[in-house]
């Protein structure tokens, strides 16, 4: 099967998954307690006014009519109107999405840069102090709650040492790119340093569990590959140990690592809720929390659909990347 046919097949599968997400999200709104009209109206409102608002929101229609109207608007980008601000949901979600993507990608970069070398060192120096140190680090990383780690980092590096800010996102990465394309390199550099200064602590907080997971996966994969026949044959041919270790063994080890990185990237997009709340990072996580507290179901629905679509797209890209790392992986 060619790459184009594979992508088409997986895209069709992905559409069904997204449709399932949309259906589940709509069902959660239906079974959730409370009336959306209560968000807009005071408790002592006149019953006629209340009924008029319900008709304007379409809540008086049968559920199947509401469902099909909701689904029909999604392909055109119509996710409805926010109950609290009466603005398009799609515009609000897209305005918050870049901040969450920046945080998720930054956390992934931090995890990969630290975890893969640490996993390689742990596997090649088995039972040495470096191996024990990497094992302890991964255990602590998996066991530490993100919200507690974020608070501790703020207390230590922001309050006590005054090295990093406690919150906010004064500049986005899109601004840095725009300034660089406009040849405003001085402004772009200042914006980049400000961006790095503000995103460092949130990225470390969000990526700590991810770092520990990749470290353990890389270590186990390296140990498994080092014991295979082709490694002994490569060494018998006189190939340098560095070439064997990093060109052949590590490359084959990266197959499951890439899988986890792709899946966890989608998880980080949805799992950044707590980290964004701790650092007041203005992304989808903060929008989801605020929408839930305000019972703004259209915004909550739109945010969850975007997160679900992010999972699907990430999985498709990860599967397509397999063949580049390992020619034995086919698109069948």
From TrEMBL:
Locate the ABC transmembrane type-1 domain: which residues? 97-318
Q: In what way does this protein cross or attach to the membrane? A: Multi-pass membrane protein
Q: Which domain of life is it from?
A: Archaea
* Record keywords: Cell membrane, Membrane, Transmembrane, Transmembrane helix, Transport
What's the protein name?
Peptide/nickel transport system permease protein
Instruction: Read off the PANTHER family from this record.
Output: DIPEPTIDE TRANSPORT SYSTEM PERMEASE PROTEIN DPPB-RELATED
Q: Which Pfam families match?
A: BPD_transp_1, BPD_transp_1_N
Chain segments annotated as transmembrane: 12-32, 103-124, 136-159, 195-214, 254-279, 299-325
* Family to which this protein belongs: Belongs to the binding-protein-dependent transport system permease family.
Q: Where in the cell is it found?
A: Cell membrane
Where does it primarily localize? membrane
Return the InterPro entries for the record: BPD_transp_1_N (IPR045621), MetI-like (IPR000515), MetI-like_sf (IPR035906)
Listed GO cellular component terms?
plasma membrane
Tell me the GO BP annotations in alphabetical order.
transmembrane transport
């Amino acid at each position: 099967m060619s790459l184009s046919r594979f992508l088409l097949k997986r895209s069709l599968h992905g559409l069904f998954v997204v449709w399932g997400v949309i259906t589940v999200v709509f069902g959660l709104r239906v079974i959730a307690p409370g009336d959306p009209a209560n968000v807009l109206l005071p408790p002592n409102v006149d019953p006629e006014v209340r009924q008029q608002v319900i008709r304007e929101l379409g809540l008086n229609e049968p559920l199947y009519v509401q469902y099909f109207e909701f689904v029909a608007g999604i392909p055109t980008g119509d996710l409805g109107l926010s109950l609290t601000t009466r603005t398009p949901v799609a515009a609000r979600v897209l305005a918050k999405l870049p901040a969450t993507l920046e945080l998720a990608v930054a956390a992934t970069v931090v995890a990969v840069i630290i975890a893969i070398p640490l996993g390689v060192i742990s596997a090649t120096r088995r039972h040495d102090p470096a191996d024990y140190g990497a094992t302890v680090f991964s255990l602590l990383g998996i066991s530490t709650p993100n919200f507690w780690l974020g608070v501790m980092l703020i207390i230590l590096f922001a309050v006590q040492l005054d090295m990093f800010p406690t919150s906010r996102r004064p500049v986005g990465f899109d601004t840095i790119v725009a300034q660089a394309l406009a040849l405003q390199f001085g402004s772009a550099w200042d914006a980049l340093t400000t961006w790095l200064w503000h995103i460092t602590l949130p990225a470390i907080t969000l990526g700590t569990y991810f770092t520990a997971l990749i470290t353990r996966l890389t270590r186990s994969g390296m140990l498994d590959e080092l014991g295979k026949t082709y490694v002994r044959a490569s060494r018998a041919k006189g190939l340098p140990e560095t070439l064997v270790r990093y060109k052949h063994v590590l490359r084959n080890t990266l197959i499951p690592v890439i899988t986890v990185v792709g899946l966890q990237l989608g998880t980080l997009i949805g799992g950044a809720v707590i980290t964004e709340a701790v650092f007041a990072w203005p992304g989808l996580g903060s929008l989801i929390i605020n929408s839930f507290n305000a019972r703004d179901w259209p915004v909550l629905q739109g945010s969850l659909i975007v997160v679900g679509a992010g999972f699907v797209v990430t999985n498709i890209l990860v599967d397509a990347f397999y063949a580049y790392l390992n020619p034995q992986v086919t698109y069948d």
